Structure formats: structure tokens, C-alpha cells
């Protein structure tokens, strides 16, 4: 199975990264629809697309407005956007208000269900995260592997969602701050690097990939990867177009 990181920035894009969007091309599954959403058309191999939203902040949903172009370049028959009911309501009333987007978007919105069985038998579930306005994380379990996606939340060594990601072979987790801004992380509902590594260690995951990187960082070296690797050695920084085999 391949997971493609199409967008790995948080808040806004920069010259190196677009905002949050991850894709499982073999299944036609996308997590979040940030500014990297336009890249989905280059990886499509299915005739349906399911987009699972973590929440409704703009850096995770504005790519939904690109869907007409995505559809024009593909043979997609159906696109479904899944999200919490109140988040979908906010999208309809605000992002897709006629004053901002004058035509109906070319997809169906459906309230998030407790569990989904994917085309290859994988089971997708979600769990709550602490973030202003609320967010959810996702996990997919197959008989021989598992994946967890956690973004826009405050990591801590004893955070509740550890039990939801325990033993995942691959954990893709946000890391917006280094360890110098814990107060700002708490205020904005984001994570510092040491607590993220502590979460990975406590959950006994197989591999940790950091995303939702602060866009003002000039280079990846500005995020102290070595700090995380001392706690959880199998940590790496995700980049746009990175393909993760798991």
C-alpha cells in the first residue's frame, strides 16, 4: 500500500509545501483537502473518490473548491466528502455560499459514520482530537498493516488518542512547532516536536512521519528532527510528493 503526501504544510502554503492533503491512490481515499488537492488528479486510479476531512479550517478544506478542475481531467463517477455534521454545515453555509462560490460543488457531502469498510477490506475509523472547533483523527486497519493520521491537535505523553493509534505501523502526525513555543501550541491547538515523539513511543507505532509543518520555516533543518529521534528513532519529516510504503 502506498500513501502519497500531497500537501505537508500547515496554515498556508509556501514555495515548498502545499497545505494538508494525503492520498491512498489504490483506494481512491483522500485525507483532508488543503491547497494540495489539485494534485489528486495526477494519482487517481479509481472511478470514485472519498475525501475524509479532519475538520473545517481553511487550510484543510479550501481545495474542495478545486474539484471542477479535478473532475475535468479524470473519469471520476462519484466524489463523496465525509466529515462531522457541523463541519459540513459550515462548509455549505460559508465556503460554498453564493457570494464566495456561485455554483454548487460537484460532490456529495455525507456525515461521518463510525466505521467504513474500504474496497480492499480495510476498516476505517475515527476518533476525537482536541483543537479549536474540534477535529478528528483517522485510522485504517488491514489484516497485515495499519495507518493512523493525526492532525491539528495538542500532543502530550498521556493524551487520550494514544489508545486509538496504538500499534499502528505508520503514524502521520502534525508537528507545527519546535519545543520553544508550548504556550502558542496550546493556544492554537497544535503540537510541539517532543510531545509528538512521546506519543509515538507511548503508542508503540512502527514509524512516525511529521506533517503540517510550520510554513515560515525556511528549511526542514529548522525543525529539530534529532530531538524527536532521541525519543523515537523512526521519525522523519514528511515532504510534498513523498510516497510512503507500508
UniProtKB/TrEMBL annotation:
This enzyme's EC code(s): 3.1.-.-
Matches recorded under InterPro entries: Metallo-B-lactamas, RibonucZ/Hydroxyglut_hydro
Domain Metallo-beta-lactamase: 48-213
Key words, A-Z: Hydrolase
Protein name: Ribonuclease BN
Tagged with keyword Hydrolase: yes
Transmembrane helix found in the keyword field: no
GO molecular function: 3'-tRNA processing endoribonuclease activity
Coiled-coil features, chain-numbered ranges: none
Gene transcribed to yield this protein: rbn
Superkingdom, natural source: Bacteria
